[in-house]
Amino acid sequence: xxxxxxxxxxxxxxxxxxxxxxxxxxxxxxxxxxxxxxxxxxxxxxxxxxxxxxxxxxxxxxxxxxxxxxxxxxxxxxxxxxxxxxxxxxxxxxxxxxxxxxxxxxxxxxxxxxxxxxxxxxxxxxxxxxxxxxxxxxxxxxxxxxxxxxxxxxxxxxxxxxxxxxxxxxxxxxxxxxxxxxxxxxxxxxxxxxxxxxxxxxxxxxxxxxxxxxxxxxxxxxxxxxxxxxxxxxxxxxxxxxxxxxxxxxxxxxxxxxxxxxxxxxxxxxxxxxxxxxxxxxxxxxxxxxxxxxxxxxxxxxxx
Length: 304
Fold this sequence. Notes:
Blueprint: E1 14-15, E2 26-27, H1 33-36, H2 45-58, E3 62-65, H3 69-78, H4 80-85, E4 88-91, H5 107-115, E5 123-127, H6 136-149, E6 153-156, H7 166-173, E7 176-178, H8 185-189, E8 194-199, H9 203-212, E9 216-218, H10 225-229, E10 233-235, H11 247-258, H12 263-280, H13 285-299
Helix pairs in contact: 6-11, 9-12
C-alpha cells in the first residue's frame, strides 16, 4: 500500500475498506507502517510472508478471536468478517493467564508494596512489550515527559536503554521504579494506584488494560484507534517509530490521564472492565461463544 499522491503530509488522506461492512475510514497516519511501505512484488520476504499469512487466514473454516463484544461489539455485531469471507467468528476473549503470584519473595509482591504508598489512579505503568522496543531517542522523550509531569511510574523497559541518570534520580526521589527482567504486569495493572498504562497499544497490552480497567496513554505503533474512540485512552502521538515524540506532548498526555481531567476516562475504563468481566462470566457473550465453539468441534469429531 504505497503512499498515494493524494496524501497531504500523511494527514489529508483516508483509507477505506468498502468491502468490509461497518469498517471505518482510517487516516493515512493511523495505518501501520507495515502496510504503508508494502509494494507488490517488491522482493521484501518479510512483507510477503506477512501477506501470505493473512491470505491463509482467510482460508480457515472459522475465526477464533481473543476479543469480546464489550471491546469490539461495533464490528462483531455487524459481523464484517463473516460478510467478507463467509466465516464464523468466535469471540472467546479475553483469554488471560491467572493473576501473578504474590508470594513474599515474588517480584509482584515487591511491586505492589511499592505501589501501596501512592494514591489511587496516580501512577503510570510503562511497558512496550518484548517485541516493540523504543529506540533510545523515544525512551529519552518519555523519560523527560515523566520527569516534567511529575507522574510517579513503574517502567518495565525490557531491553530499552534509559537515559543516563534517569533511573537513579527517580529512585532517589521515590517517584519511579524500573523493573529489569520479568515484570508482573497483571498484578501492577490491577493495583488501585495505577491509573495510566503507557503502551504501544499492541493487542495483548490493549486487552490487559481493558481487563484491569486502566485508562491509557497510547504511543500507537500499531492500533490505538479503538481505545481512543471508546474514550478510555488518549493518543500521546501518532506515527510509530517514524518520528521522535515531543516530550511536552507526552507530559501533557500523562497529566491528562492521571489528573482531574482524566477522571471521566478512568471511570469509563472501569466500566469497560466490568463489561469484560460479564462477557467471560456465566451466560456472558464470550462464554456462549466458547461453549458454541466447543460444541462445534465435538460435532466435527475433533473433541471427544
